Amino acid sequence: MTNARTLPAHVASYAETPVFTSDTVPSKLLSHHDLKPGTWGLMHVKKGAVRFFVEDGDEPVAVLNKDDAFVILPEERHYIEVSDDVKFYIVFLK
C-alpha cells in the first residue's frame, strides 16, 4: 500500500467537488469508475478515512486519513470505501 504519487508539473485545476460525507458521497464513487484521458484527480480528506482500491485489487492501494491527499491517475479504474465520519473532496486537473 502506498500514498506516494505525484501530479505532473504541467497540470492545472479546473473543477472541484463539494465536500462529501458518508451520506452525500455519490454512489458512482463507491463502485468502479475512472477519470477521462488527460484528467487527474487530487483527493483531500478532511476528516475520517477513505480507502482507495483499483480494479481487481483486494487490498486498498491507499488508506487516507485526515489531512491526507492522494493522486488519482487518468483512466485508472477504481472505487473507494469511506468511514462513517468521512469528509473529503476531489480537485480535478488537466
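(ticket continues) Second input and output from the same batch:
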Amino acid sequence: MLIVSRFLAGCIAIFCLLGCTRADGEGNEQLDRDVAIKAMKLAATYFHDNVASHGGYVYHYSLDLKKQWGEGVASRDQIWVQPPGTPTVGMAYLKAFEATGDRFYLDAAIDAGNALCYGQLKSGGWTSAIDFDLQGKLSGDYRNGRGRGKNYSTLDDGKSQAAIEFLIHLDKATGFVNESIHESASFALDSLVKAQFSNGGFPQAWPCPPGPEPGLAATYPDYDWRTERRVKEYWFLCTLNDNVAGDLATTLLEADRVYQAPRYRQSLRRLGDFLLLAQMPGPQPGFAQQYTTEMKPAWARKFEPPAIASDETQETIATLMLIAQETGDDKYLRGIPAAMQWLRRSVLPDGSLARYYELKTNRPLFMQRSGDEYFLTYDDSNLPSHYAWKIKSQIDSLAKQYARATDGKPLNEEPSDRKIAEKAKSILADMDTSGRWRETFGENRVVGQLKLARGEQYLSSQTFSDNLATLSRFIARTKK
C-alpha cells in the first residue's frame, strides 16, 4: 500500500508503507516518526490554509470547498462553535503543537481562538455559530459590538463548554500573555460560574431566572404530566440533556488544573451535589433530561416528554464517577449501583435502551408524528427518523469503570503504544495526495444537516481533528 504525502515547499513525495516503517527491537515494523510528522504537517497546512474561514470551521465541506455545512448550509462568513466545529479543530492544533513544538500549529490555534473571541456573547458564552457578516442571520449580541441578535449563552451540545475549554488551553499554550485570549477565557469562566443555580445545577442557557431551591431532591410529578406544566422556555431549567453535566465537569476540571483557582473545584463539587439530588427515587432511580423548579421531570421540546432518560442516566453515571475520582469523595458513587440496576432491568429485547421510560410504570415510551404534532405511544414501529428514540447500552463499560473507580484506579485504561502506532499507520494510509481524509456520505452517521448524494465524498472537521490528535499522540509517545 502506498502512503502519498507532499512536502510544504510544494514538492510531492510518495512513500511506500514499508518504506515508512522501521524495525523495533523485536523485529516488528514500526511507523517512522519523521514521516508521521511530515504527513501531519501536510494535513494541517491544507486544512488551515484552504478550509478555515475567518480562522474558524464548520462540520463538513465538499471536496471542492464550494459548499459547507454546520447545522444546515453555512456561508463562508459563518463558523460553528458547537463540536465538531471551531473549538474541536483548535484543540487538535494545540495537541499537535504540544507534541511537536512547531509554532505553525500554535498560530493555527490562535486563529481559531481569535475567531471565538469575535463571537463571544455579552453574556459570556457562545451560541451554535458565529456570523462575521454584520447583517448575517446567525449573528448574536457579541461583546465586540459588531453583531446583533440574541444574547443567550448556551450549554446545549457542549457549545460554550467546548469554546471555554479550548480557550483555557490556548491561554496556557500562549503563556497567559495573549491579552484577548486570556480576557475572553476569564470572562467566560466568570459568567459560567455565575450561571450555576444555587442547587448546583445549570440551565441550558443563560441569563435566566433563578432555579430550584438548594437541597430540593427530585420527585415524581403529582399532576398529569402528559398535559400539564409544559414550559415554553425549557432552556432555563436544570438540564442534563446531551451530556451538559459531563461537558461542564470536564471544563471546570480543566479550569482548575490550569488556573488553580479554588472556585472551579467548588463549582464542580456543587455540580456533583446537584446530580445526587437529581437522581429519581424508586422505582426508577435514573435521571431525567431536565427538571422543573420543583425538581420534577419536565417537558422540553414537543417530542421530549417528562420521563426517565436512559442516555442522560448513562452520561450522569459517568460524570459522577469522574467527579468522585477528581475530588476523592466516594459520596458521588453511592447512587450508581441503583442507577445501574435500573438500566439493566430496562434493556429492550434487542439489547438497546429506549430513550424514554414512562414515569413510575417504566414502560418504554416513544413518539409518533403527524405533521408538526407528536403523540405519546408505547409502539416503536413508526418512529420519526430525526431523533434517537433508542440508545446503545453502555452498561458493561460503565460497570467496568465503576469497578475501577471503587478500586481507586483511573476510569479508563490508556491504549498501548502499539495500538496507537497501528492507528497512526492506518490514518496515514488513508490520507490523499493533498493531505486530506475523505469521508463517503452514507457510510457514517454525520452531525448536522449534510445534503449530499449517497456515495459522494466530503471533508469532515471531526475526522481531521481525530486523526491529527491520534498522530500527535503517536509522536508524543515516540519522542527521541
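Agent notes: The longest helix spans residues 33-51. Residues 1-19, 23-29 have pLDDT under 50 and may be disordered. Closing as not reproducible unless the customer responds.
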